[in-house]
Queue: 2 jobs
Job 1
Amino acid sequence: MRIEKSIWILFLVFTTFFFIGCNNKEKAIKYNDTIVEELNKLSKLEDAVTSKQGDDGEKAFEAFKNAVPESRKAIETAGKFKDSDSFEKSALALCDFYQEVVDGKWNDKSGDEIGTKEVELYAALKQAQKDFAERFKIEIVQP
């Protein structure tokens, strides 16, 4: 489960787009990059939370807690692209999940349940990104 997420995050981090000079493609790339950058930021902070203990863990949690609404706002500000909103919605769903976690709404769940939900949300995000790329004729390649 953690490995699958790590692979997906690496894929997002190293995602590059090749395009043929179309303005819509350039805008689609920038839109994708905005979402990817925000989610990568959250992922790194989440990893710091899970890997730290004591005061360092509390500081990492506070940083994550503060970043979630900021990232959500950045993604909301990006809005939908043209009339396509599934990529945005899947990214916001992940932010909402993280917000629920930091708000303690998942405290009664096991680590496996939380991890399963996160993997489901990442799978939906991956599919939404793929659909977005296909629709706007951009190619996602891993360098």
Job 2
Amino acid sequence: MSFKGGKTVSVNLDFIDDGEEDKKGNYIPKLCFDPSDDIVDNATKLVEMDPYSLINCIPDLFKTESELVISTEFFEKGN
């Protein structure tokens, strides 16, 4: 996400998933776009994402002004 002054900040959201631990207690995240999934399935996941999810998952996909409009509309709807 971009802020005034042009600084871009990326936040690691790995904690928001359905990952699990292996036998040694190592955390294994569940990927949204798993490389072992069929490319059509991953593409479908991408095009079905709502705009708010897109701006939070894919940095610099939209211009800053568009991100602000998307965020404002999302929160005005009470999501």
